[in-house]
């Protein structure tokens, strides 16, 4: 009998997956894999382990294995591991959904027509009940006009377009939620479409399945049940690591007929961190992990301070210094060597110095998701066009500057160079003049506002101005043109699904133009800080941005007072300082998700990013209550909780230890 080791303990789960991927008897599965368990590695090994006969048969019949990953980086890594073999179709969920519906112009048009008519009727019904003269009344009128215009123009569209990672403007462009909804609709309502999918894919494998959008996941589950035995739907994930509200909450309860292998090991973190993670989820689903025998020890500390009267910057610096002392690891005093995780991005924005840019654009439902993950098209004008151009000019790199212009400026495309613009000798001359004018801003005013930068870019036509930004330009700017037709083309963009829950939504919301007008007052230097943050090149991050990542040293900051979306999470509710509010309690009584569940998941995701040591910095109106909770629930030992004094001071406490 072979001894079980940490490396082989989960081999049975991997073997189960391989057995499910059989062309003769495909079986769907849900692989439970907690933090650091090697879930993605299991997926890679399953693909690499497919026998030659299976791959040969798939190629012979032009069939593919769909592999859906959460990020482009994960897709690139899996593609590399399978040596870019075209039999593996590795994509993100949006790319996969688009690959299913692309080219089905008539079907898409029919769905959009039906959907638009329904939405218009719903708005009209609400409009009839509303009061005249209110903001809501005016918004409904504008929305009805916009949707009606889009409906009238549907017949003009020859082919629909969509860019999973790029800009989706124009009357023929589909938006992210529309692509997901269309794929879900066809999967459940069109028998012809279902047969096409069955013929194309014997296996559909989805990594991070707990965060796959609910409409598409429900459609895939319905599709699988209807055609069980003809296709294997392979789901990999951990419901405790669901971080988006549009994921399927009860996914693990919807796969009762699936094979359900589970992984026990946590290969990432040292034992003390694994023990804390087990404590956090013990009262949720009870699943527990094992730490590797060669990863004993590890350090966890909680630093508690009053919400009022505490100098947060000083307290967090104190926590880092204390962690350096406790662990004997001087890197804890190097900010770049620590990953600091916050509950909300605006907390990180404040600490990194781009709040003026961040706050306005993170409020409107139609902007915040794209802005927060770096994909908002209008913002990309600054991050992917102007910033690289300014940086290249400052560095004296003419080659890099020209590369930026060739990539995005109409002045230096073939037609622009040949014919020029506005009577100028050539587009190249115009580009040189525009760049000179732009750089003059940074000479006269070292840190001009984004509005000033935008005005120069528009005046000299250096880059196309996204439609969202045109209303923010001066009336005499050449790019400030009639917006009637543009608004109709933007209708689907403005209708992007809001991924927050009602309790997450702030009481008032600025219009898109108001938000941009405020954000453009921010100094242009904040663009670089924002970009470093969304590209994960800063010491700060959030639970969304670090999904699947790991770091030797992690600091988690929990500060309910500085949380803007109060319903998103509440550490003080999780730790018993505050009770659930009436609305949340009603949800709990109805079996719906509560703040406590979301906060527990958030805490689990952030804490399990740590490999060696972890510091939790908690600000509370009742630190003593949190301390009692942590100790009585055996999350922490008494000597693992560091308390600041009631007046917010903490050096004395350190000296006493």
UniProtKB/TrEMBL annotation:
Domain UvrD-like helicase ATP-binding intervals: 12-283
PROSITE patterns: UVRD_HELICASE_ATP_BIND (PS51198)
GO terms, biological process: double-strand break repair via homologous recombination; replication fork processing
Residues where ATP binds: 33-40
UniProt KW keywords: ATP-binding, Helicase, Hydrolase, Nucleotide-binding
Domain of life: Bacteria
InterPro entries (UniProt xref): DNA_helicase_UvrD/REP, P-loop_NTPase, UvrD-like_ATP-bd
UniProt entry tagged with the keyword ATP-binding: yes
Protein's UniProt keywords contain Cell cycle: no
Entry GO MF terms: 3'-5' DNA helicase activity; ATP binding; DNA binding; hydrolase activity
Gene3D superfamilies: P-loop containing nucleotide triphosphate hydrolases
Protein name (record): Fis family transcriptional regulator
UniProt organism field: Thioclava dalianensis
The organism's taxonomic lineage, starting at the top: Bacteria, Pseudomonadati, Pseudomonadota, Alphaproteobacteria, Rhodobacterales
């Amino acid at each position: 009998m072979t001894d079980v080791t940490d490396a082989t303990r989960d081999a049975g789960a991997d073997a189960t997956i391989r057995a499910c991927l059989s062309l003769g008897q495909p079986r769907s599965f849900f692989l439970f894999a907690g933090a650091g368990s090697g879930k993605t590695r299991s997926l890679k090994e399953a693909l690499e382990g497919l026998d030659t006969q299976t791959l040969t048969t798939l190629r012979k019949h032009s069939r593919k294995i769909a592999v859906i990953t959460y990020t482009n980086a994960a897709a690139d890594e899996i593609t590399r591991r399978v040596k870019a073999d075209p039999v593996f179709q590795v994509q993100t969920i949006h790319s996969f959904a688009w690959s299913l519906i692309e080219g089905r112009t008539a079907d898409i048009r029919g769905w959009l027509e039906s959907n638009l008519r329904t939405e218009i009727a719903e708005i009209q019904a609400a409009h009839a009940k509303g009061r005249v003269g209110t903001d809501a009344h005016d918004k409904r009128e504008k929305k009805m006009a916009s949707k009606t215009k889009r409906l009238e123009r549907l017949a003009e569209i020859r082919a629909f377009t969509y860019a999973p990672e790029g800009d989706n403007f124009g009357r023929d462009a589909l938006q992210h939620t529309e692509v997901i909804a269309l794929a879900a609709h066809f999967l459940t309502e069109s028998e012809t479409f279902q047969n096409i999918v069955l013929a194309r894919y014997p296996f559909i494998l989805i990594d991070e399945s707990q965060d796959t959008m609910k409409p598409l996941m429900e459609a895939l589950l319905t599709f699988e049940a209807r055609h069980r035995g003809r296709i294997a739907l392979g789901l990999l994930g951990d419901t405790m690591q669901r971080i988006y509200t549009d994921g399927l909450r009860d996914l693990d309860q919807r796969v009762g007929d699936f094979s359900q292998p589970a992984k026990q090991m946590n290969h990432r973190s040292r034992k003390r961190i694994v023990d804390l993670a087990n404590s956090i989820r013990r009262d949720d689903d009870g699943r527990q992990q094992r730490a590797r025998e060669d990863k004993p020890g590890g350090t966890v500390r909680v630093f508690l301070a009053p919400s009022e009267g505490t100098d947060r910057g000083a307290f967090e610096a104190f926590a880092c210094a204390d962690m350096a002392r406790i662990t004997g690891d001087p890197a804890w005093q190097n900010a770049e060597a620590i990953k600091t995780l916050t509950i909300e991005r605006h907390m990180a924005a404040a600490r990194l110095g781009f709040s003026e840019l961040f706050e306005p654009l993170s409020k409107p439902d139609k902007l915040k998701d794209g802005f927060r993950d770096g994909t908002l098209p209008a913002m990309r004008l600054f991050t992917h066009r102007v910033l690289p151009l300014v940086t290249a000019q400052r560095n004296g790199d003419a080659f890099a500057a020209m590369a930026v212009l060739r990539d995005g400026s109409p002045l230096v495309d073939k037609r622009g160079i040949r014919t020029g613009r506005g009577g100028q000798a050539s587009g190249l001359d115009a580009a040189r003049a525009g760049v000179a004018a732009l750089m003059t801003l940074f000479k006269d005013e070292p840190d001009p506002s984004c509005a000033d930068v935008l005005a120069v870019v528009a005046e000299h036509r250096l880059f196309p101005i996204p439609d969202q930004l045109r209303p923010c330009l001066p009336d005499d700017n050449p790019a400030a043109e009639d917006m009637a037709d543009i608004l109709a083309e933007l209708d689907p963009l403005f209708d992007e699904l809001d991924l927050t829950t009602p309790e997450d939504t702030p009481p008032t919301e600025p219009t898109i133009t108001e938000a941009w007008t405020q954000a453009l007052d921010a100094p242009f230097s904040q663009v670089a800080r924002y970009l470093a943050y969304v590209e994960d090149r800063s010491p700060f991050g959030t639970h969304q941005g670090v999904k699947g990542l790991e770091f030797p040293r992690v600091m988690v900051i929990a500060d309910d007072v500085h949380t803007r979306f109060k319903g998103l999470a509440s550490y003080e509710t999780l730790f018993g300082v505050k009770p659930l509010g009436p609305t949340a309690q009603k949800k709990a009584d109805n079996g719906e998700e509560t703040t406590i569940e979301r906060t527990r998941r958030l805490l689990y995701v952030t804490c399990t990013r740590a490999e060696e040591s972890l510091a939790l910095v908690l600000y509370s109106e009742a630190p003593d209550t949190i301390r009692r909770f942590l100790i009585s629930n055996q999350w922490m030992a008494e000597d693992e909780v560091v308390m600041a004094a009631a007046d917010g001071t903490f050096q004395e406490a350190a000296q006493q230890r």
